[in-house]
Specification:
By secondary structure, the chain is an alpha/beta fold. It has a single domain, classed as Alpha-Beta Complex (Spore Coat Polysaccharide Biosynthesis Protein SpsA, Chain A), CATH 3.90.550. 27% of the residues lie in helices and 20% in strands. The protein is built from four helices and five strands. Strands 1-4-3-2-5 form a five-stranded mixed beta sheet, with helices on one face. Helix 2 links the parallel strand 3 and strand 4. Helix 1 runs parallel beside helix 2. The longest helix is centred in the middle third of the chain and has 11 residues. The radius of gyration is 15 Å and the shape is globular. 25% of the residues are buried.
Length: 142
């Protein structure tokens, strides 16, 4: 199941957002929504799917399509690389011409200015990490 969902909505960006997921689809609808609310829409979204052909990702994607206004690509790895699949995908995307690669987690809440913050922090030939979790009470309330 390696495919571009809903064909290309817009021209490809030079920024790729990559999310790796393994049978954690309960937040996927929220991720799609959060990305559609971004103040900066210059990105393509790639899901590195490690669950082995799980139909939940397709079902959630079909239900969410009404507000997906960015290019969405789903790459299935069948857990052959575990959590490292995202890095193989990032390498391949860099070789395809993506200049900026951003990683998000499948349980992350994404503020509307996230992509713009990434652009504002961008420096060529650097690796940066920011947007740490705020934990309220316990780990699952972040």
């Amino acid at each position: 199941m390696n495919f571009l969902y809903k064909n290309e909505i817009k021209n490809k960006s030079t920024t790729a957002i990559i999310m790796c997921t393994y049978k954690r689809f309960k937040n996927l609808y929220g991720t799609y929504r959060d990305l559609s609310l971004q103040t900066n829409k210059d990105f393509d979204f790639y899901i590195c799917e490690n669950s082995g052909n799980d139909p939940h990702i397709l079902n959630t994607t079909r239900k969410s399509i009404k507000f997906i206004d960015y290019n969405l690509f789903i790459k299935e790895y069948n857990n052959e690389y575990s959590i490292f699949g995202r890095f193989y995908l990032a390498r391949d995307l860099a070789m395809q011409g993506y200049e900026k690669i951003v990683f998000i987690d499948d349980d992350q809440k994404i503020p509307v200015e996230f992509v713009q913050d990434c652009y504002d922090q961008y420096e060529e030939d650097t690796v940066k990490s920011f947007y740490a979790h705020i934990i309220i009470g316990d780990y699952w309330k972040k």
